[in-house]
Amino acid sequence: FPLFWFSMPAILKGWMDRVLVQGFAYDLSKSYDGGLLQDKLSLFSFTTGGTKEMYSNGGIGGDIRYVLWPMQHGIMHFCGVKVLEPHICYAPEIVSEEKRKEMLTAWTQRLKTLWKEEPINCTPEWYFK
Questions:
Q1: Taking a C-beta distance cutoff of 8 angstroms, is the pair 89, 48 a contact?
Q2: Three-state secondary-structure class, residue 30
Q3: How many C-beta neighbours within 10 Å does residue 83 have?
Q4: In the 3-class helix/strand/coil scheme, how is 33-92 assigned residue by residue?
Q5: Are 36 and 27 contacting, i.e. CB atoms less than 8 angstroms apart?
Q6: How far apart are CA 61 and CA 28, in angstroms?
Q7: Do you know which PANTHER family this protein is assigned to (predicted)?
Q8: CA angle 60, 66, 70 (to 5 degrees)
Q9: What are the tens digits of pLDDT across the range 63-120?
């Protein structure tokens, strides 16, 4: 998805609101590592309008991990889902055609080994270190 106003597009958030419902995706007594979807994996793959530097610790947008906190931790991890390292393509609109091809190649390569990846340590330390 395209990163939109520091979050996912409304249509994707609406889908999550309708599908990840109490009793199916979460229960207040069973959340995070004990959540109802603990046998599932998630991977956020998205593009940004800004460069990697803009989403760095000293960048104008702040560290991209801050942006990911509510989506990966607050939604997916809350439901018990194990979260893989996100796949981010920074500013595809403004980079060279060669760089866009490199982004596609990197995504293709990652998809070949995706099931072997270890989930991130979905704790505040991972996001705010």
A1: yes
A2: strand
A3: 22
A4: HHCCCCCCEECCEEECCCCCHHHCCCCCCCCHHHHHHHHHHHHHHHHCCEECCCEEECCC
A5: yes
A6: 32
A7: NAD P H OXIDOREDUCTASE-RELATED, RIBOSYLDIHYDRONICOTINAMIDE DEHYDROGENASE [QUINONE]
A8: 135
A9: 999 999 999 999 999 999 999 999 999 999 999 999 999 999 999 999 999 999 999 9
pTM above 0.85, yes or no: yes
- The pLDDT mean for the chain works out to 95
Query: Of the candidates 118, 107, 126, which has an alpha carbon nearest to the alpha carbon of residue 63?
Result: 126
3-state helix vs strand vs coil in the chain, percent to 5: 45, 15, 45
The answer to whether the beta carbons of residues 32 and 77 sit under 8 Å apart is yes
Tokens coding 25: 């995706």
Alpha carbon 99 to its chain's center: 22
Q: Superfamily for 10-128?
A: Flavodoxin domain (3.40.50.360)
The closest alpha carbon to 45, from 103, 89, 108, belongs to: 89
48: tokens are 């940004």
